[in-house]
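Deliverable D4.2, example record:
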Amino acid sequence: MGGVITGVPLVVFALILSAIPVIKLIHWAIDGEIEGGLVAVALVLYLGLLVSVMAGPNVVKIVALVLILGGALAFPLLGSAASAKQVEQMSDERLRSYVIALESNPNDPVARIALAQELEKRGDVEQAIEHLEWVLKEHPRLAFQHQRTLESWKRQLERRDTPDFFYCHMCHAEQLPGATHCAQCGAAFGTAEGMRERLYREGGPKAVIRGFVVTVLVVGLGTLALLELPSIVAGPIILGALIVGAVLFLGWVGGDIGKPAD
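Output generated by the structure prediction step:
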C-alpha cells in the first residue's frame, strides 16, 4: 500500500513536469519551427519516461524523473533563446531593408525614421539621433510628430554618463551610489538596523507573527506533501525551497531600494 501511495504522487509530479516541454514542442511544431518527426520522437521518449516512472524499479524511476525535471527546466530556456534569436533575425532583416531603401532613395524620410528607431532599439542612440535630426531638418513639417522622440533620445544619451542613483525604501529620497544610510531620513540600507526599521514600518511585532504563522503553515503542508516522495527526490526540492525562501527574504529586507518614488 505504501508503494502505491508513494507511486501516485510521483506519477502526477512527472505528468505535470512533462507537460511543460510537451506543450512547448507541440507549439513549435504548429509554428513550423521544428519538424513533426522530431516532435513525434520526443513525445515517444517522454512517454517511455512516464512509463518508467510508473512501473520501473526505484533507480529507473529516479533517473526518469530527473530527466523529465531536466527537460522541464531546459525547454523554457531553449524557448526563450529561440525567441530571442528569432527577434534578432527579424530586427536584422528590418535594418537591411531600411538601408536598402535609403540606398535607392536617400531622401526617403519614412525609411530614415524607421532606421533611426531600429538603431535606438539596438542601443546606437548617437546614430539614431543623427538620422532623426536630418529628417527634421529636411522635413520640418514632421517635427510635430517626432520632435519629442528626438528630445527623449537626447536625454537618454545624456543620462549614460551620469551615476546610477537609487532610492530610499523609507522616504524614497534619491541617494548617491554607495550610500549606506539615507541622506534625508537616516534609514539604513541592507543591514540589521534597516531590517528592524522595515519591520516597524510594516506592522512591528504583528508582521513577525503573521510571517511566523504563514511560514509554519507552508512548511507543515509542504512537509506532508514531501513525505509521499522518496528522500532522493524530496531532498533537492527542500534545498531549492530553502534557497528561494532565503533570496525572497533578503529581497524583502532590502525593501524598495532602487525603485523610484510613485
